[in-house]
Each structure stands twice: as structure tokens, then as C-alpha cells.
Amino acid sequence: MSRRTSWNVARPWLAPLVPFYAAGAALRSASLRLGLEPVRHLGWPAVSVGSLSAGGAGKTPFVIALAALFTDSGLAVDVLSRGYGRRDGRAARVDPAGSAEVFGDEPILVAQDALIPVYVGARRIEAGRLAETTGAPPGVHLLDDGFQHRQLARDVDIALVSSADLQDWLLPAGNLREPLGALGRADVLAIEARDEAALARLEALKLGPAVGQQVWRYRRSMRFPNFREPVLAFCGIARAGQFFAGIRAAGIAVAAEQAFPDHHRFKAADLVLLRELALRTGAASLMTTAKDLVRLRELPPLALPVNVAELVVELEDWVAASNWLQESLREPLSRARAQFATPR
């Protein structure tokens, strides 16, 4: 990877370890390509949504938007997730009212917002097999954060791309799980509509329509409660700065900010910290993300009101995207339906 100083380096002191990580990533990729690591298939077609970044790419709201697209098209859809942070790796169907420790925060959020079945499992093929034993007619599996989960076959691979990712380093110095060249295996590159730099960089890398890849543009927006009182903004997500900047951009006064690690498991001591910080800075209420609220709901309520900022994704040309997906999945879906209709 280039060592130009203009690139984003989250942890520059770890840069000497990047070649070792790159070698490991290349070895695994070769193992999959040569068939040394088996790639397993589910009975229903699968569509993967993922990114090169280890976090903060907006995959979960994109999955929710894509689930709505399938539902509006009359196709049954479910979501398969690893369920980051779960204590039990066994496959299970997500209870939208359940615990983040049991199911993971993102799967619960998807189940609540998309109103579709969501299955979790340390091995997503087991989650998919559980989904296929319900007796429901075949539909489409959506793999949440599945770009690197290549041991499960997929019919369509969607990679979210940002200019920040395209200037980042590999782990552990940066946040990339694979080199930029891995984007070549994506069928669809999804770019935020305002991110013209990402499109230019993809063209320079000889990726996109020139090599047969779809490029979808989408818009991300944050929806806030309608008020203007000073808030204490807090979150436990990968890119907290974007969240705080979005609140300010909406014209909401931010009395203070408090960032926790990504997927942070809130404890009673954290609530004490937030209450004291709110009192000290004059915040009238608190503002957090929907994912953080899932992880908070098992704790006693805070003394101040907690407001939620909702991140929403909308495809610019959802009709074209829907038509392309239906055409791409027509054959595997027909096979799945034919097998379902065959007497056993």
C-alpha cells in the first residue's frame, strides 16, 4: 500500500505490522480461490452487503433499505447476521424485543425497523439453514456485513465504498480488512451521492461500469426529533465524529460529547458518567443512535430524556436497482422454488 502521508492512518505506530496483515489476507483469499477452504451454498439465493472497512460504513441502514426494496417488489427476504457481541454462537431467530447480549445490537435494530425475519449465528450458513427450515416459500437471504464472509456463497455481492475508505490503510494501522483490489469481486459498488471523490478514485483504480460493475448512488440522512434544546450527544459507534457533526449540522446545540468504543456494552457506571456530564454542561436531554438505544434498554432509565437520531439510507434510483436485482436473482430463485415445490 502507498505510504503517501495524505492517506488516513488511524494508528500510524502500527504501520510496520500492515505487511503481515496483508500477507494473511492474501493467503486466505488464495485459499478460497483455490478451493482449499470450502465455499458452502444455501438453498435460497443470497445477497451480501458489506464493505472493506471494519466499521462505520453504514451497512446496517443500507441493509434495512435493501430489505424494503425486496419487500416492495413482492419478494420474501430475511437477514443473516453474525450478531457481533453475542455470548452464544448458536443460530437463532432474533426477537426484536430481545437483548443485545443474546442477539447483537444491529440484528435487533434490523428486526425492529425492517419488520422481517432476522437470524444470527457465528456461522451464517447455520443461520441460513435455520431460516430455510421454517417451511416458508423460498425468498432471498441478505447477508449483513458479508463481504469478507466468503465461505458462504452469494449470488450478488454489494460493497459500500467511500472516499475515506479509498484513502485508508489496512488493519491494524488503518480500518481496511482487505486491500482496495478486493473491490473487484463486487457486483455492485454503492457510493453516497455526495461522494464524488470516491467515484473518481474508483475510475482511477479501473473499477466500476468499465469492468461490468453496477454503481449505485444512495443518500444518507439523519432524522432528529423536532427540538432545539442543548443536548449531551453520546454514542458507541465506529465513527462517532460523523454522528456528532450530523447533530450540529441539523442546528441542534451540543452541550457536550461523549464517545464510547464501537458496540460498547453500557454499564451503570456509564449512566452515572452521562448524568454528571449532562448536569455539569447544562444539557437538557441526551441524544444517541438507534443502535446505542438497543444496548441501553436493559439498564435503569436515565434521569434525563434520551432522544434518538435515526440514520436513513435511500437509493437514488431504486427502480433500476430493483429491476437489476430481480433479473440477477431470477434463475437462482426459480431453482429454489422448483426444489421447494418438489415432493420430499
Structural commentary:
The protein has 344 residues and is an alpha/beta fold. The chain folds into 2 domains: 12-220 and 314-341, Rossmann fold, CATH 3.40.50; 222-312, 3-Layer(aba) Sandwich (Rossmann fold), CATH 3.40.50. The protein contains 10 helices and 12 strands. It has a 12-stranded mixed β-sheet with strand order 3-4-2-5-1-6-7-8-12-11-9-10, sandwiched between helices. The protein is globular, with a radius of gyration of 21 Å.
What descriptive keywords fit this protein?
344 residues, alpha/beta, Rossmann fold, 10 helices, 12 strands, 20% strand, disordered N terminus
**Name given to the CATH architecture of the largest domain:** 3-Layer(aba) Sandwich
Residue share in helix: 25-40%
Largest sheet: 12 strands, mixed
Order of helices and strands: HEHEEHHEHEEEHEEHEHEHEH
Low-confidence stretches: 1-7
CATH C-level class of the largest domain? Alpha Beta
Tally of distinct domains: 2
Shape: globular
Kindly provide the radius of gyration, computed on alpha-carbon positions and rounded to a whole number of angstroms: 21 Å
Please state the structural category: alpha/beta
How do you describe this structure in short?
The chain is α/β, with parallel strands linked by helices and 344 residues long. It has helices at 18-33, 59-72, 100-103, 105-114, 124-132, 196-204, 240-249, 268-281, 290-296, 318-341; strands at residues 46-51, 77-81, 92-93, 118-120, 140-144, 156-161, 188-192, 214-223, 231-235, 254-259, 285-289, 306-315.
